[in-house]
Amino acid sequence: MPESLILDADAALWSVEPADVAGRHLLLLLHGYGADEHDLYGLRAYLPETLAVVSLAAPLTPPWPMPGRSWYPIDGLDGRDPSHVTAAAQAVIEWVDAHAPGAASVGLLGFSQGGAVSLQALRLEPRRFAYAVNLSGYVTPGGLPRDAELAEAKPPVFWGRGTHDDVIPAALVEHTTQWLPDHVDLSGRVYPGLTHSVSEQELADVHVFLEKRLTDAAPPPSSDDAGDRP
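^ that's the sequence the OP posted. Answer follows.
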């Protein structure tokens, strides 16, 4: 088993003051392999303004000469070992418990490795996260103890990927295609011509997905409104 991982809280980039996240809907951004916390933070302009956003830094350094950070190894004998993906997801959960316990809801948005970690975190804590956005990522093979609970809860998941993405192995794409519909409320799109990247059309679709999540989370109108009184 891999050692426990701890995320660098000082590296996280917040769109609001951390003390102001209580009662807000929070979206966690999880970058891809070789990137860092700055990579997805620039997507804030494409996201609903009412969301509080925090971009996390992965805990590992990839082998030289790859720059940036990584959530788990993808090279060597333990490359893409499911236990390493689980360790990264557990570190994300522990970060949320420590730094955002008062958030009204917590959603996950990850690219590539970050997408895989987001889905793994959802599997570890099916009722802790409101939804997940998986961009060019995949579901890690192998069962987890709460997969049946996830299938019962069926949280919303958006999965976007490109037809020309040659980074994620075909076997993992096929596994994800088969696995997700049985365990989550799946929506998404395959983008013609898109490589291992994110397009403006995809971000527009993500915006619609996130707005729907915020609408679903809004409290119903109060029966005490003046217009409802006899």
